[in-house]
């Protein structure tokens, strides 16, 4: 059973992420990305998909052309857990920082 | 310059698609899919992505785990065009009919 992040761990871990915002009305985080084109955007999504499958922890995401919006939360815990932090860190590690909006 | 479908062609062509619904408030169509798992859902998305890139006509889409929601419209025409019909037909051709919801 995976449990939601306690408030102290949460603050520390969220502070280490880049560009993630709290989602209104639910315990989740979201980050928006803009790429040069669809090829770059979907290539990025494919890298995230492979990682997500490896973790058995999947994002909610939206894409249109060069934009990708990713929302992370843990269904079983009804909120943010260490799995979301781990996936967010991976996403940050492959995201071109200057293209994040 | 690509132009929106005229009403007669629109009715005929939309009637040949499977499971697509009009989107409220804009000239677009949407279809929802449910797959067995994320692997199937993202594999389907990858096939659509490759076709979209070939057509230079991209979907708006949302995914979480085994669910995919696709919205089609043509930005340059601010509405439905023959490109949307062509992409929808391709999607229909690779979508497992029984898994559409």
UniProtKB/TrEMBL annotation, chains A, B:
Lyase in keyword set: yes
Enzyme Commission designation: 4.2.1.96
Keyword Lyase attached: yes
GO BP term, example: tetrahydrobiopterin biosynthetic process
InterPro entries assigned to the protein according to its UniProt record, in alphabetical order: PCD_sf, Pterin_deHydtase
First-level EC class: lyase
Alphabetical keyword list: Lyase
A matching Pfam family: Pterin_4a
Superkingdom, natural source: Bacteria
A GO term, aspect molecular function: 4-alpha-hydroxytetrahydrobiopterin dehydratase activity
Catalytic activity, as annotated: (4aS,6R)-4a-hydroxy-L-erythro-5,6,7,8-tetrahydrobiopterin = (6R)-L-erythro-6,7-dihydrobiopterin + H2O
NCBIfam families the record matches: PRK00823.1-3, PRK00823.1-5
Family: Belongs to the pterin-4-alpha-carbinolamine dehydratase family.
Protein name: Putative pterin-4-alpha-carbinolamine dehydratase
Organism listed in the record: Paraburkholderia caballeronis
């Amino acid at each position: 059973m995976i449990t939601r992040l306690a408030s102290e761990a949460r603050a520390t871990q969220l502070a280490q992420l880049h560009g993630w915002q709290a989602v209104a009305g639910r315990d989740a985080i979201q980050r928006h990305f803009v790429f040069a084109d669809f090829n770059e955007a979907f290539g990025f999504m494919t890298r995230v998909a492979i990682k997500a499958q490896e973790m058995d922890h999947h994002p909610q995401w939206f894409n249109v052309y060069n934009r990708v919006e990713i929302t992370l939360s843990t269904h079983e815990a009804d909120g943010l857990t260490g799995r979301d932090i781990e996936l967010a860190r991976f996403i940050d590690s492959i995201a071109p920082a200057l293209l994040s909006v």
